[in-house]
Specification:
This protein is mainly beta and 127 residues long. It has one domain (36-125). It has one helix spanning 3-21; strands spanning 36-38, 43-47, 51-54, 59-68, 82-90, 93-98, 102-103, 106-113, 118-125. The strands form two sheets. A five-stranded mixed beta sheet has the order 1-3-4-5-6, with no helix packed on it. Strands 2-9-8-7 form a four-stranded antiparallel beta sheet, with no helix packed on it. The radius of gyration is 23 Å and the shape is globular. The relative contact order is 0.16.
Length: 127
Amino acid sequence: MKKTGKVLLVFLLLSLFIAGCGQGTDNSRSESYETLTVSLGEEFTLHKNQPAIIDDENFTITVTEFYNSPCPEDAQCNWSGKGIAYECSHNGVVEEALNATQVCGFNQEYITSDLETYVKLKITKSE
């Protein structure tokens, strides 16, 4: 094999090796957040998989997923593609919800979110 052929072969193999090193890695690194303890009616910010405990209510809420895949223009979709999935627990009863205004018997007020990393909420008692 000529010298240019060897150099080309080495370059090709090195390129494949470098490209393969990135395979299987998760670039959406999951941050670790501490459990929040908040009062009923207090606004608070949650990140994915971060639990919040409502003081004196035996209530916990956790964001399990953010959805931010809006429906393309000129397409008919069954839902907007934007949402937040929650898991809550109250007195040992666990529920899952998507875009809910009530979770585990409590009202949930959505304040704001970037639909990717955080949501700001307020939890109050259902009347």
